[in-house]
Design a protein that fits this description.
This protein has 12 helices and 11 strands. By secondary structure, it is α/β, with parallel strands linked by helices. Strand 6, helix 5 and strand 7 form a beta-alpha-beta unit.
Length: 343
């Protein structure tokens, strides 16, 4: 009887330990993205976000992050990896699949973006209203970076200096902008930038300062040009998305879905924006040490704006009208949201 009792006690202990282990980690999720573990997006956004999810779920959710396309594929395939359940969560650019996620492009149009916080908040409210293109996903958050500036082999001091330059862009709206400037757009995901610059495939790239550090762009170009404009120091921005597989989200019990929801959308849009703005400082300082930072004069900014703003916006409106939307109304709505959150 003592032996039976001891065996029973051991069995109960082991069973309890098993239950505790299962409770401690009920859901293990894979998060896949395209940048290095040194990038701001990985180290200062995704890692802290995943840690928050794990802590608030009391360890019941574990998120493993795989940077630099470690699970295979190319950056444009990330969004389908989330939809198809190859991974559970991705961080990517909707613009890596041109013409597929067109509504949020309105925030990428020239001279729309001014404040990262305001654009993030406006973007997430806009997607809450117009989320049909993302119906196959559970959207964690949409966000932008601090905005594009020119990083080039030769100085860009006037609008004329842009003519004929081959410039890398991640999105089709960026391509339209580059064409309107009289330059040549070369589309490619951001990890390809070092090779494109080193092999002279492009003369310049349009990215924020923060990503120049992990890509070591300062070692490949000598000039960094922003706009001398107090409202629009960057000509445009790019939209990003953290998207989750819908079936993965549906499998979570309501209390764990709430953990995800409490760390999604507007709840984290401002925090993400503040981090992205802060990440510009070391990138800007490094660029100034290794090369020359240039400010395009106000008169040249005015010329540039006259060249590109309305022509690119009209092109987008025409594309949206062809899809059955009212493109002009969408632009007006986006501007109203930006004004709301800039106040």
């Amino acid at each position: 009887m003592r032996f039976v009792g001891l065996a029973f006690g051991i069995a109960v202990t082991l069973l309890a330990a098993g239950i505790g282990a299962a409770h401690a980690q009920e859901f293990r999720l894979k998060l896949h993205h395209f940048l290095s573990p040194l990038s701001h997006g990985h180290a200062e956004m995704l890692v802290p976000w995943a840690k928050t999810i794990e802590e608030q779920s009391q360890g019941r959710i574990k998120i493993d992050i795989f940077p630099a396309m470690q699970l295979g594929g190319r950056p444009p395939q990330l969004i389908d990896q989330a939809r198809d359940g190859v991974v559970d969560i991705v961080w990517t650019l909707p613009g890596y699949t041109p013409g597929r996620f067109t509504l949020t492009e309105v925030f990428e149009l020239p001279f729309m973006h001014s404040s990262t916080v305001a654009t993030n908040r406006a973007l997430n409210e806009f997607v809450a209203r117009h989320g049909e293109e993302f119906a196959d996903y559970k959207i964690i958050v949409m966000h932008v970076h601090a905005g594009q500036l020119f990083h080039s082999n030769d100085p860009i001091r006037t609008v004329d200096d842009l003519k004929g330059l081959k410039i890398r862009t991640p999105t089709r709206t960026g391509g339209w902008l580059i064409e309107a400037m009289g330059s040549v757009p070369i589309g490619a995901p951001v990890p390809q930038i070092p090779e494109m610059l080193s092999k002279k495939i492009v003369d310049a790239v349009m990215i924020p300062y923060e990503v120049t550090l992990p890509l070591k762009v300062d070692e490949l170009v000598d000039y960094h040009t922003e706009l001398d404009d107090p409202v629009h120091p960057r000509i445009n921005t790019s939209t990003f998305v953290v998207a989750m597989n819908k079936a993965t989200y549906a499998k979570l019990p309501p209390d764990l879905q709430k953990v995800i929801d409490d760390n999604s959308g507007q709840a984290i849009a401002g925090w993400i924006a503040e981090g992205w703005d802060a990440a510009e400082t070391p990138g800007r300082e490094n660029a100034a040490k290794s090369g020359e930072t240039v400010s395009l004069p106000p008169a040249e900014v005015a010329k540039l704006r006259a060249m590109v703003e309305q022509s690119v916006i009209d092109r987008w409106i025409a594309q949206m009208d062809a899809k059955g939307y009212d493109g002009k109304s969408l632009v007006a709505e986006a501007r109203a949201l930006l004004k709301k959150y800039n106040q």
